[in-house]
Amino acid sequence: MSDPTHLLIAFAAGGTPAAKEALRAMRLPRLERLLQRLQPLPPEPVDELAPEAPHERALARALGLDSGAGRTPWAALALQRAGGAPGPHAWAWITPCHWRVGMDQVLMQDPAALELQDEHARELFAALQAWFADDGIELNLETPQRWLARGELFRDLVSASLDRVSGRDVAAWMPESPQARILHRLQSEMQMLLYTHPVNDARAAQGLPAVNSFWVSGAGALPPTVPEISAPALDLSLRESALRQDWAAWAQAWQQLDATRGAALLAAQERGEPVRLTLCGERAWQTFESAPRRLFQRVSGFFGTKPASMRLEQL
After folding, report:
1. What does the H/E/C string look like for the chain?
2. What's the pLDDT score for residue 297?
3. What mean pLDDT comes out for the span 281-305?
4. Which of 7, 53, 57, 112 sits 20 to 30 Å CA-CA off 284?
């Protein structure tokens, strides 16, 4: 269950000059008013090579599952919230993906761009399932774009999220641990198998990118007891345009977000409800929350003078 009084916005800022230019040109009146009225908590920096993006670190902290970057058991948590029984087992997501091999880097395309449909996914799943089983990994076809896996090698695996790797060189994000060697070998085997798979011949005929690898994310096991905490309302409406670095579309999405969920949060604040807003960029996240009226009067004159664009640039 999500908490509508705590809005967590992912990809709220970009680190490129083009992103900053788009940000300075935007008008976000509801965000401006919220930031003038809410008390800022200290920003939380995230290393640029950390395996989870700032919004994922912020969400893990809010859920009481902050066991270290890359160790949040997102797959097991999703299974539990869908009514499944993760038990003491370790789980992970296996995502079919396309790696574009260049002269000095291997870029991972955003898996959503594969447009992988059920028929092709089932054929690929059938071809790969036995290979995973040989390494003690049980695969389940959760959706065409994301498969659920269970296996002990996921228990202490540090895995990088798709939001961290999409559009970037995979070399910086490959897991490094004794059990990761099994995954590296399995990836090499699957790349050879997929290279000549009939599904990729059919996809080429349709002008679609080949499925030539997979990515492991969300690995780990849930603790014996999971805190009963309402999750912040996570907004990912800026994600797609940010990953494409289409900053014109990103600015339009920001303005739409400001006019909808931003307006709703502002209205709740104006009704006197305690609200929280967490803004997440590429390098940091920061939460702003309702302050007691007397404290608000003391801090608003100091904190309310910085424009929203300047705050977002720091993320």
Report:
1. CEEEEEEEECCCCCCCHHHHHHHHHCCCHHHHHHHHHCEECCCEECCCCCCCCHHHHHHHHHCCCCCCCCCCCHHHHHHHHCCCCCCCCCEEEEEEECEEECCCCEEECCHHHHCCCHHHHHHHHHHHHHHHHHCCCEEEEEECCEEEEECHHHCCCCCCCHHHHCCCEHHHHCCCCCCHHHHHHHHHHHHHHHHCCHHHHHHHHCCCCCCCEEEEEEEECCCCCCCCCCEEEEECCCHHHHHHCCHHHHHHHHHHHHHHHHHHHHHHHHCCCCCEEEEECCCEEEEEECCCHHHHHHHHHHHCCCCHHHHHHCC
2. 45
3. 67
4. 112
- The pTM (predicted TM-score) of the whole model is 0.90
CB 234 within 8 A of CB 8: yes
Query: Has residue 304 got a pLDDT over 60?
Result: no
pLDDT of residue 101: 87
| Tens of pLDDT, residues 258-279 | 999 999 999 999 999 999 999 9
